[in-house]
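Late entry, written up from scratch paper. The run itself happened at the end of the previous shift, but nothing got recorded in the book at the time, so transcribing now.
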Amino acid sequence: MTDIAGKPASLPVMRSEFLPRMLGGAEYVVIPALAVVAALLLFSVFLILVGKSPLTFVELIWTGAFGSGFSWRNTLQRASPLILTALAVAVPARLGLTMIGGEGALVLSGFAAAAIAVPFVGSGVSAVLVMPLMALAAMVVGGLWVGLAGYLS
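Output as recorded:
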């Protein structure tokens, strides 16, 4: 391997470039991991103070979230809206923008979808017709809420 001048590149130069890159990226893993460990330790102290076993608690959480096919499906179903809401904040953040109102848009759009569906319950109208109306209502209300937050900021 040669450098720009055509001289043989030495191995220490390559290592010196690799190590700072590796350490710079490690903070994105190490800091959140330490935060999770600190939270687990603090919560374990709380559980011990109220007379419960932290290991039993972790086992119950693990079984409830990943113990069966139903648990996996339930975990993913409940996490998906939160992940998509976080993504709606993360994408503008990469552009240097701040997006507020994502959680409110999630709640209000869910409420709008449910409010549209309630009059059709028991009416015999096909779900194929009601679902697009629910989605449209959710998109409009969520968009209005985020637009309002953007207008005010």
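The CA atoms of residues 83 and 129 lie 28 Å apart.
(Scratch paper discarded after transcription.)
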